[in-house]
Inverse folding.
């Protein structure tokens, strides 16, 4: 095996014989609908009548229908796709199931996705891989919120063809009037979402208009569901786009040769092509190229390849190649559509991990432009985004990342957001456009830096962050620490929660989003002050772990001491110096920490002070001890 083929095999497995031929790509079809609309029954019926269910599988289906079927004595076609035990017991789809169908005209891959709101993330996963959507609606119940939400998700993820399958027509006596009422109600929403939608009346239970025309609905002269799908033209091939090749890794052979690997996301790669690497801008030529069948002159989108470059350039996992002369945007600030799956809300100012392709980066939500009303298509004003909402927001990364708008190339324009505390995937996103905000702004190098200022002052700058419930004693202890430092001729500044809200942050309230923005601003101010060489004391409730993690990360290159002032809630309520707990208990004060808004106790603070056991001066001395011994405070 030559070195290039060895590199391919090391990255992607054994090579295939050159004689292997591949069928044209199948049309990828999403099936979705609200719970109990009969989506899985429809897909099962289609599979059966299209001849995609072997006799032995159908025999098993009969047995399963006896144990799990919804109607005694009938074959329950939903069980063909609801294969998980939990799905059968609960009568809902949980995971995404894929089924393959070949007809005389076309090959299909059907994705059966969950309808329950709890599993909207799984539905979006199926939609991201689909070209056509079947949105199932119940003729009796009519359209539901999930019907509109699924249409909005499909449009957001780039699907342009949809079918509204109005199911259970047998339950409304195959009424043309009822069908047209539902179809007309759905049409404005799909028009706003730029979905080319065709409505078809069906009965999945009896097979009407699924594969064969219905004798019960002769008034419907359009094709059946399968017949309509066979006539849909697929979206343009990714080969019509410019080259997009994310680097997955670099491999070296025994002789020291360097081979690059990746799967072509879009376009075509040929031997001799000149390529550009993003974000570095380095250029090189494709010297040799290998695919599954060994060395080759060219490869298309969807193909994994190994290749060499002349000259060799420094590439790493996550770099993105494109053809010389084409445009690929790199930016550190961009607008995106986000489908939110997280249990907690998405707020402006919060940090997450961005996974765009195979590249990862910290990312901050800098602004929420609005929330999509899935029924009207309007963008509604919003300060936070909750589970299953579709948001339009601005995101910023510390360094520029390369991407395309999702509408241009889904592979290089789609991303995930990861909660950096829990590791949970909380959102799927689609890049809309790059933002020029700050594109002409760069860090100005200054002659005098933090070290010079600290030398002049004869002290080392630091941030001491006091966190705890209202009434725990944070401000009292911080004030005592500042008095003791002042007596030692140490220059300090105390940023107190209430004082900051009377000035810099007077425009912010106490929602989760406003709390996050409040602390982000304070962290930036503290950073400026510590650059001046000051010891900065920050007294803020800072109730959420993710915000405290954000603060620690933004101040990672300075001396930082997180001090948890611990006191029981009952004691804080007895102290209640401002009468806030009493107001919160009477319902006069909303989003008050400890009452109707949670406080997440720090897991590993640098110092814990029990303010129920010692006086403020004694606790302040403990803080000073840690500050005087830098090795303990870091």
């Amino acid at each position: 095996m030559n070195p290039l083929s060895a590199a391919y095999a090391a990255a992607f497995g054994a090579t295939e014989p050159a004689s292997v031929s591949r069928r044209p790509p199948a049309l990828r079809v999403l099936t979705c609908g609200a719970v109990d609309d009969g989506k899985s029954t429809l897909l099962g019926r289609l599979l059966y009548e299209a001849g995609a269910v072997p006799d032995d599988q159908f025999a098993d289906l009969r047995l399963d229908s006896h144990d799990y079927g919804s109607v005694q004595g009938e074959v329950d076609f939903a069980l063909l796709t609801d294969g998980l035990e939990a799905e059968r017991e609960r009568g809902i789809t949980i995971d995404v199931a894929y089924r393959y169908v070949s007809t005389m005209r076309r090959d299909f891959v059907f994705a059966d996705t969950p309808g329950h709101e709890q599993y909207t993330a799984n539905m979006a996963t199926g939609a991201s891989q689909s070209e056509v959507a079947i949105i199932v609606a119940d003729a009796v119940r009519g359209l539901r919120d999930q019907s509109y939400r699924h249409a909005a998700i499909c449009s957001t993820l780039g699907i342009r063809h949809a079918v509204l399958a109005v199911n259970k027509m047998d339950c409304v006596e195959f009424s043309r009037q009822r069908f047209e009422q539902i179809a007309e109600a759905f049409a404005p929403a799909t028009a706003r979402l730029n979905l080319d939608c065709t409505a078809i009346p069906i009965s999945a239970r009896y097979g009407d208009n699924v594969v064969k025309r219905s004798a019960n609905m002769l008034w419907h002269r359009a094709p059946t569901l399968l017949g309509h799908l066979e006539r849909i033209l697929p979206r343009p091939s990714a080969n019509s786009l410019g080259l997009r090749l994310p680097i997955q890794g670099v491999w070296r052979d025994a002789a020291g040769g360097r081979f690059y690997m990746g799967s072509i996301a879009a376009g075509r790669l040929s031997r001799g092509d000149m390529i550009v690497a993003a974000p570095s801008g380095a250029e090189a030529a494709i010297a040799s190229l290998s695919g599954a069948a060994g060395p080759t002159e060219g490869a298309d989108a969807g193909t994994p390849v190994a290749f060499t470059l002349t000259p060799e350039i420094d590439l790493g996992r996550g770099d993105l190649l494109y053809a010389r002369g084409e445009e690929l945007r790199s930016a550190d600030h961009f607008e995106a559509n986000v489908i939110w799956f997280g249990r907690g809300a998405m707020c402006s100012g919060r940090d997450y991990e961005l996974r765009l392709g195979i590249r990862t980066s910290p990312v901050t939500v800098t602004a929420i432009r609005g929330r999509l009303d899935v029924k009207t298509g309007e963008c509604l004003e919003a300060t936070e985004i909750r589970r299953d909402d579709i948001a339009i927001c601005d995101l910023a990364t510390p360094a520029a990342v390369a991407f395309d708008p999702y509408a241009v190339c889904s592979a290089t324009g789609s991303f995930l957001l990861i909660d950096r505390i829990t590791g949970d995937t909380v959102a799927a996103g689609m890049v809309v456009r790059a933002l020029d905000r700050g594109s002409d702004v760069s860090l100005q190098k200054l002659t005098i830096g933090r070290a010079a200022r600290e030398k002049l002052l004869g002290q080392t700058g630091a941030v001491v962050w006091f966190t705890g419930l209202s009434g725990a004693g944070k401000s009292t202890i911080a004030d005592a620490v500042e008095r003791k430092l002042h007596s030692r001729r140490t220059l300090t500044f105390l940023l107190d929660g209430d004082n900051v809200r009377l000035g810099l942050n007077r425009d912010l309230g106490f929602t989760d989003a406003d709390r996050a923005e409040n602390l982000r601003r304070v962290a930036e101010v503290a950073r400026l002050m510590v650059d001046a060489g000051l010891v900065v004391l920050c007294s803020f409730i800072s109730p959420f772990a993710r915000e405290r993690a954000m603060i620690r990360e933004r101040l990672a290159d300075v001396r930082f001491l997180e001090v948890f002032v611990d006191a029981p809630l009952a004691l804080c309520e007895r102290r209640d110096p401002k009468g806030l707990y009493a107001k919160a208990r009477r319902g006069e004060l909303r989003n008050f920490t400890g009452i109707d808004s949670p406080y997440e106790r720090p897991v590993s603070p640098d110092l814990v002070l029990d303010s129920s056991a010692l006086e403020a001066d004694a606790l302040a001395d403990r803080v000073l001890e840690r500050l005087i011994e830098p090795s303990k405070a870091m």
Summary: The longest helix spans residues 512-531. The first strand starts at residue 27 and ends at 33. Confidence is low (pLDDT under 50) at residues 16-23, 84-93. The chain is about 30% helix and 30% strand.
